[in-house]
Specification:
The complex is a heterodimer.
Chain A: H1 6-35, E1 38-39, E2 44-45, H2 50-57, H3 61-90, H4 96-108, H5 111-122, H6 127-136, H7 153-175, H8 180-189, H9 194-223, H10 226-231, H11 239-247, H12 255-293, H13 301-330, H14 347-351, H15 353-388, H16 394-405, H17 408-422, H18 428-453, H19 456-464, H20 469-480, H21 482-498, H22 501-506, H23 514-522, H24 527-555, H25 560-563
Antiparallel strand pairs in A: 1-2
Helix pairs in contact in A: 1-12, 1-15, 1-17, 1-18, 2-12, 3-7, 3-9, 3-13, 4-7, 5-7, 5-13, 5-24, 7-9, 7-13, 8-9, 9-12, 11-12, 12-17, 13-24, 15-18, 15-21, 16-18, 18-21, 21-24, 23-24
Chain B: E1 2-11, E2 22-27, E3 31-35, H1 42-50, E4 58-65, E5 68-69, E6 80-83, H2 95-102, H3 110-123, H4 139-152, E7 157-161, H5 169-186, E8 190-193, H6 197-203, E9 207-209
Parallel strand pairs in B: 3-8, 3-9, 6-7, 7-8
Antiparallel strand pairs in B: 1-2, 1-4, 4-5
Helix pairs in contact in B: 2-3, 2-4, 3-4, 4-5
The chains are: A mainly alpha, B alpha/beta.
Chain lengths: 568, 216
């Protein structure tokens, strides 16, 4: 019986192994060799630590390292605190479905687009300053570095606007597996305040379920490139941005220390995760001691309110950022202290049409192909698990998360060298391949829970009625799971559209997408054209999510059990 | 012609024997009731016969249906129908299409298939409900539709896993009667897991009491 679907599982495993894991391994191998002095193309062929010395000597290295640690860790910790506090404050008042719908726009928006919009809002000549201008009497933008500030505050805020909603969604979905209301009532009946119940009873149960996503957030915040380029300090920038610059520097000699930096980036994330694990153990001991003391005194209500208020402000800024992209793209004359443009025009759209149409078609093509491949592979994987009637081994789960916790900068340059050797660097194929490394995990994670939530007995009933595995898949599972499959597809599209580094490196700078163009333009002067690209960037995932909502609604309009909140 | 279990044993994924080896013959038209403490493996026994065992469960011994060894066959070729606690109607299909799903392919022609399903719906008191959403049915209607779906597939045996336990007590007698009379009319062997003494009384058939195996 265990041989059921063996070929399917072997096929899936070899595609995952050769298609997804091998490139990551090869990328690290190439980067690692360069990091220890083996880079024959530059005539360096002795194993040594010289690249590391060169790295440390590069101007701004120390500052970049410090910036990376400060921005990455504080963005993650603050996001986690806010998401937890906000959840504690509002959980009893929102259903998971409503929560997911509220958070979707924030999850769908590509990081770079949000960053561009945020720069529009926060900049000294941005919306916040314009809103304050009449009250404080500014007739020109104040001389403050509110974006690209040397402390990286704008970067932290930008990361938080994306990560708080993500963590909220993860926590909300974990909470569906815990009888929260009962535990909260039980705790309050024992004399503990609401916030304390959350800290002492709910969060210890939630943490094991959100640990991995928190690591993903940490890894991302420590190694992000596009957002840091747009919002972070520019000279010196964060380490990941610096490494990207060194890799692309006119002097190819910098590739060697850049490789060492890429490996260092991996070590930083490993260290960060290790610190989080250590923190978890420490919290467990302190928490237990605190719990056993049984103190009821601490009031956390002010903390919860503060977390809610900050979260709402962050969301509001995020919404403003999205709106400002659209407005800038349609603005013509918009002198400083005015809150809205003086004159409107479609000229930015028309004048840049040839540029954005090309980038748009590339982006759409990449999104469709990478998402289709990823969804097909995810369905094949899940179907293989079903046919074997077994759950997922821990190593397989780790395999799925792997591309999300390792820094892209760590292996993409090395992978490009490998792609050069087989002659596909700069091709669409190479970009599709590299993007799929990151699209697949998200699609797989999004689809796994709904797939498993499908009642085993429903499938057994179908089998008992004589339906073989293929008929069960096509006639039962896929139609019932239409909504989650389309949601996973929309997530795939959003992830693909947002990819910056894989497109930049694998496309060898020749394949322009909305994201690569928006990031490049964001350092320039014309906000209107940048607004056009970033607005388009937002629209694509939005269209995908809309389709994921509308298609099942029409298809299943007469099927009550499929339109309720049971399926997400 | 019968459902025959010979020295059937089941092991959990961690190698634990569920109950002492069972040998049993269920003749055509008979309903044998399986009883026993919870956790002894009553549902697992039905899963083994129907081909629905989860990964890691071990099954040894022989399961013969009308002389055909079925223990190594996949569920879809065993011709063993199942009824669970819930009706498990497919939520994306209409009531009629749920029944049509199990209709064997030797019933040919759209009109013929449609009228076979309509006739079964009528027997279940669901005449004219072909195109309705299955979620719109009441508990009793769902149970009857599920039984019809199972029987239309022309099974050679039926397994019932606490089929009435989730029904209102007022409905239970009616559905119980409906189920047993239809199974009797087909003259196929049936095996039923239940905690309800009343179920066992109504069948008037034999009872198989599963016990935890003796420890040595």
């Amino acid at each position: 019986m265990n041989t059921d679907g063996r070929y399917l599982r072997l096929t899936v495993l070899s595609i995952v192994g050769f298609g997804l894991m091998l490139p990551i391994f090869l990328g690290f191998w190439q980067t690692g060799r360069a990091a220890f002095g083996l880079f024959p193309a530059l005539g360096r062929d002795t194993l040594s630590l010289a690249p590391w010395r060169e790295l440390v000597m590069l101007p701004g290295f120390g500052t970049s390292l410090k910036l990376t640690l400060v921005t990455g860790v504080s963005a993650t910790v603050l996001s986690l605190l806010l998401a937890t506090g906000f959840c504690a404050a509002v959980h009893s008042r929102v259903t998971p479905g409503a929560g997911a719908r509220m958070l979707t726009p924030f999850l769908a928006i590509p990081h770079a687009a949000l960053a561009v919009g945020l720069a529009f809002v926060l900049a000294p000549s941005g919306w916040i300053a314009r809103g304050l201008a009449p009250f404080v009497g500014w007739d020109r933008p104040p001389d403050l570095a509110t974006v690209n500030d040397t402390w990286g505050l704008a970067l932290i805020v930008g990361l938080m606007i994306k990560e708080v909603p993500f963590l909220l969604l993860v926590i909300l979905s974990a909470l569906t597996q815990i009888p929260v209301a009962k535990h909260v009532s039980a705790g309050r009946a024992l004399g503990y305040g609401r916030g304390v119940v959350w800290i002492k009873i709910i969060m210890p149960q939630v943490w094991p379920m959100i640990r991995l996503p928190v690591w993903v957030v940490l890894a991302y915040a420590l190694s992000v490139v596009d957002v840091a380029m747009i919002l972070g300090p520019s000279n010196p920038p964060t380490l990941a941005v610096a490494i990207t610059r060194w890799f692309n520097a006119p002097d190819p000699g910098q590739i060697v220390p850049a490789s060492a930096g890429a490996i260092l980036q991996v070590l930083i994330i490993a260290l960060g995760i290790a610190v989080f694990m250590l923190g978890e153990r420490l919290m467990r001991r302190i928490g237990r001691w605190w719990l056993r003391r049984g103190g009821r005194g601490l009031s956390t209500e002010p903390g919860l309110h503060l977390a809610s208020v900050i979260t709402v402000i962050l969301m509001a800024i995020g919404m403003l950022a999205m709106l400002s992209l659209l407005i800038w793209s349609l603005a013509w004359r918009w002198p400083f202290p005015q809150f809205l443009p003086e004159s409107w025009s479609l000229r930015s759209w028309l004048n840049s049409a040839s540029g954005w149409q090309h980038a748009l078609s590339n982006t759409v093509f990449l999104a469709i192909t990478t998402t289709m491949l990823s969804v097909a592979l995810a369905i094949a994987w899940l179907e293989g698990e079903d046919r074997a009637r077994r759950g997922r081994a821990a190593w397989a789960e780790a395999l799925i998360y792997l591309p999300l916790v390792i820094p892209q900068i760590g292996f993409l340059y090395g992978l490009n060298i490998a792609f050069l050797k087989i002659g596909i660097s700069g091709d669409m194929t190479a970009v599709i391949w590299a993007q799929a490394l990151f699209v697949f995990p998200y699609v797989m994670i999004a689809l796994s829970d709904p797939w498993r939530a499908l009642n085993r007995r429903t499938l057994d009933s179908a089998a008992a009625l004589g339906a073989g595995p293929f008929k069960r898949l096509v006639k039962i599972k896929l139609p019932i799971l239409l909504r989650p499959i389309l949601t996973a597809t929309a997530i795939g599209v959003a992830v693909s559209v947002a990819q910056y580094l894989p497109t930049l490196f694998m496309g060898a700078g020749r394949i322009a997408t909305l994201t690569t163009e928006a990031v490049t333009l964001s350092s320039g002067s014309d906000r209107r054209v940048t607004g056009v690209y970033a607005a388009l960037q937002i629209m694509l995932p939005f269209v995908a999510y809309l389709a994921a909502f509308l298609i099942p609604a029409f298809r299943h309009c007469n099927r009550r059990d499929l339109t309720g909140a049971t399926q997400t | 012609m019968s459902l025959d279990l010979t020295s059937l044993t089941l092991r959990t994924p961690n190698g634990e024997l569920l109950f002492a080896p069972q040998t049993l013959s269920v003749p055509l038209g008979d309903v044998v009731t399986v009883m026993g403490p919870s956790g002894v493996g009553k549902s697992t026994l039905l899963d083994a016969i129907g081909g629905h065992l989860a990964h890691g469960f071990g099954c040894s011994g022989s399961i013969k249906l009308n002389g055909r060894e079925i223990s190594t066959l996949p569920a879809e070729t065993r011709q063993v129908g199942v009824m669970f606690q819930d009706a498990h109607l497919f939520p994306h299909l209409s009531v009629g299409d749920n029944l049509a799903f199990g209709l064997p392919s030797h019933i040919k022609g759209r009109a013929m298939r449609r009228s076979t399903v309509e006739a079964a719906l009528k027997q279940a008191g669901l005449a004219g409900r072909y195109d309705d959403d299955s979620a719109a049915l009441s508990g009793g209607q769902r149970a009857r539709a599920a039984l019809m779906r199972t029987l239309l597939a022309e099974p050679e045996a039926v397994l019932l896993d606490e089929p009435f336990s989730k029904l209102d007590s007022s409905l239970r007698d009616e559905i119980r009667h409906f189920t047993f009379s239809h199974i009797a009319a087909r003259g196929i062997p049936a095996l039923m897991v239940t905690h309800d003494e009343a179920d066992a009384h109504v069948t008037g058939g034999r009872c198989l009491a599963l016990k935890k195996p003796e420890r040595d």
